[in-house]
Backbone:
C-alpha cells in the first residue's frame, strides 16, 4: 500500500497511465492465465472502495485477493509453448517466501508457527490479529489467510560476519562476500569445533 501511495505522490504521470497495479505474483498470474490475482501477503485481506479511494485508484486496477493455494486460472497456450508445460493446467495464486514456508510446514492454524533459518532467522506464528509495533525488536505482521495473520520477528544472521570482521580487522568495511575470510581458513581449519569454549550464537 505504501508503494502505491509513493508511486501516486512521486511519479504522478506514471501513476495516471497505469492500467493495473500489482505485485510480481499478480503480474505472473496475469501473464500465465489472463486472470489478475494475488494473495493477502501483499498487505490486505481484500480491497474496499474506501481503501481504493484513499490510494486514488479504481478497484478494477487492483488484483483479486485469493488464498495462496486457490486456483486463479489455467495456463494459456502461449506460455505452455514457452515453458513446455501442458496448456490448461491449474495455476494457483502463490504467496511470498514466508507464507509458503508456513504452508509447507503445515503451520496454518492459530498459534502454530514456523522457523526459517538462512541469511535471516525468521519466526512466523499464525495470529488472530497483527502484533503491536515494538521500538527495539524487529517485528512484522501481514495478512495470511481466512482472516488470520502471520506475525513474528527476524534477526539478520549475516550480521555475525560483520561482528567477526570487526574482531579480526577493526575498521574494515562491512563484508559483501566471503573472500576476506579466505586467509584465515588455513589456520582455523585444523582446530576442533568449540575450541577453548568458543560458542557462536548468531541469533
Residues:
Amino acid at each position: 500500500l505504501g508503494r502505491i501511495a509513493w508511486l501516486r505522490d512521486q511519479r504522478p504521470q506514471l501513476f495516471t497511465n497505469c492500467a493495473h497495479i500489482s505485485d510480481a505474483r499478480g503480474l505472473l498470474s496475469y501473464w500465465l492465465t489472463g486472470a489478475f490475482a494475488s494473495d493477502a501477503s501483499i498487505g490486505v485481506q481484500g480491497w474496499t472502495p474506501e481503501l481504493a479511494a484513499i490510494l486514488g485508484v479504481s478497484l478494477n486496477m487492483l488484483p483479486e485477493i485469493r488464498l495462496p493455494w486457490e486456483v486463479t486460472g489455467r495456463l494459456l497456450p502461449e506460455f505452455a509453448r514457452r515453458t513446455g508445460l501442458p496448456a490448461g493446467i491449474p495455476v494457483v495464486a502463490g504467496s511470498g517466501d514466508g507464507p509458503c514456508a508456513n504452508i509447507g510446514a503445515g503451520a496454518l492454524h492459530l498459534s502454530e508457527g514456523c522457523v526459517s533459518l538462512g541469511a535471516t532467522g525468521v519466526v512466523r506464528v499464525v495470529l488472530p490479529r497483527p502484533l503491536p509495533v515494538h521500538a527495539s525488536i524487529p517485528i512484522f505482521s501481514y495478512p495470511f489467510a481466512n482472516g488470520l495473520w502471520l506475525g513474528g520477528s527476524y534477526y539478520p544472521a549475516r550480521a555475525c560476519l560483520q561482528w567477526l570482521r570487526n574482531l579480526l580487522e577493526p575498521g574494515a568495511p562491512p563484508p559483501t562476500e566471503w573472500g576476506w575470510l579466505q586467509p584465515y581458513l588455513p589456520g582455523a581449519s585444523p582446530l576442533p569445533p568449540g575450541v577453548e569454549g568458543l560458542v557462536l550464537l548468531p541469533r
User: Anything to note?
Assistant: The longest strand covers residues 121-127.
